[in-house]
Design a protein that fits this description.
- This protein has 382 residues and is an alpha/beta fold.
- The protein folds into two domains: 199 residues, Toll/interleukin-1 receptor homology (TIR) domain (Rossmann fold, 3-Layer(aba) Sandwich); 171 residues, 60s Ribosomal Protein L30, Chain: A, CATH 3.30.1330.60.
- Helix content is 36%, strand content 14%.
- It is built from ten helices and eleven strands.
- Strands 2-1-3-4-5 form a five-stranded parallel sheet. Strands 8-11-9-10 form a four-stranded mixed sheet.
- Helix 1 packs parallel to helix 7 and helix 5 runs antiparallel to helix 7.
- The longest helix has 23 residues.
């Protein structure tokens, strides 16, 4: 059963699909598509999904306000305190819903990564599911690319689909197949599935903590809550970024894969790692992407301080490693300053071969030790 049930008018199916893809990329499971029902009683499955969902996002528009199905679903969710009404176009709400606080996304341009526009919706999902958004930078980037390739439409501008009768056999009528051949529908639908799979795999493999004393009790408590949620696979405490340890000088010298920063609640981003190639101090594309993702997530918050700790492996001398780790920390600092972070709030530290991520003897190349740890301290804007 899904975290989120999307209630919508059938003709607004592409808008619902785009919304479902976006919410999936932020880490929530979504049920929305009537046409996915096959060989089962239509009404009963809707009822089961509606009752099981933690949140019911109601997409209000000129069509849905006159839909008996949408009104019934919205009324049911409202009676259980699970309704999150959303305007996707300006409309007068039906009697009984006019006093409800309704999130206005009529002016949202549809950009999946626009967290400022989606802030109220994500906040409501966090409140009702008990789980903060877990945005996946790669899934959001892929989804945004598909959205732009389709002309970057806002929700009201997405084309109307055919009316689907509640008890019509799914995929049976030619008018439904016409929708399924839409390039935008295929692109977004496929990316939504990929996003869910990517998020599940990432949450299993991402380390729960980068520096043992870096995360305060509050953020650790939130993270433990996330790990024990039934909707999210628990993270393995021993997991590490995907990379094979290098234990001999002649082995492969590729850098470990940089993991996306983890956003455990608004304005709480766990410390994360940036990895470097052997004897390199410049940022690769993955490192830049991770830093950009952290800044994107921090956009609605005030950056109070940034602490950057450079590290190195044991292959070189301790003195040389200190210099390398200093330059790695400086590379991260310079990139953040280029992105608009005030230089005065950034501090750097070089630890060289101390505090190794993977304990090795001297003279060992280990990609997980070639890193910089980034700690962001944020607060909500006044």
């Amino acid at each position: 059963m899904a975290d989120v049930f999307i209630s919508y008018k059938a003709e607004r199916r592409q808008a619902a699909q785009h919304m479902a893809s976006v919410l999936s990329a932020y880490g929530y499971s979504v049920w929305w598509d009537y046409a996915l029902i096959a060989g089962r009683d239509f009404t009963r499955q809707i009822e089961n999904e509606l009752k099981a969902a933690k949140v019911v996002v109601v997409l209000w528009c000129g069509l849905s306000r006159d839909s008996e199905w949408v009104r019934q679903e919205a009324l049911f969710a409202k009676s259980r305190g699970q309704a999150v009404p959303v305007f996707i176009e300006p409309v007068d709400l039906p009697f009984g819903f006019q006093l409800d606080h309704t999130i206005n996304l009529a002016g949202w341009d549809g950009a999946p990564s626009d967290q400022a526009a989606l802030e109220q919706l994500l906040r409501e999902l966090e409140r009702l599911t008990g789980r903060a958004p877990q945005p996946d930078a790669h899934a959001l980037s892929a989804l945004e690319s598909a959205w732009r390739a389709a002309g970057a439409p806002a929700l009201p501008a997405l084309p109307l689909g055919p009316k689907l009768e509640p008890h019509a056999p799914p995929f049976a009528a030619p008018k439904q197949r016409a929708f399924l051949t839409s390039p935008f529908a295929w692109a977004v639908g496929g990316l939504a599935a990929a996003a869910v799979a990517t998020i599940a795999l990432w949450l299993r493999e991402a380390p729960t903590s980068v520096v043992p004393d870096a995360a305060g009790p509050e953020s650790l408590a939130v993270d433990q809550t996330l790990q024990t949620s039934a909707a999210v696979p628990p993270a393995s405490p021993q997991a590490a970024p995907t990379a094979a340890p290098i234990s001999a000088p002649g082995a492969t010298e590729d850098a470990a894969a940089t993991s996306p920063p983890r956003w455990v609640s608004p304005c709480v981003i766990q410390p994360f790692e940036i990895y470097f190639a052997y004897d390199r101090t410049s940022l690769n594309s993955e490192a830049r992407s991770a830093l950009e993702d952290a800044l994107l997530r921090a956009r609605r918050c005030e950056i109070e301080s940034v602490r950057i700790i450079g590290h190195d492996e044991t292959e070189a001398s301790p003195a040389y490693s200190i210099g390398v780790s200093e330059r790695r920390a400086s590379a991260v600092r310079d990139f953040l300053v280029e992105q608009g972070v005030a230089a005065e709030v950034i501090s750097t530290e070089a630890r060289g071969q101390h505090a190794l991520a993977v304990e090795t003897g001297p003279g060992v190349r280990e990609p997980l030790n070639r890193r910089a740890t980034v700690e962001l301290q944020l607060r909500l804007r006044d």
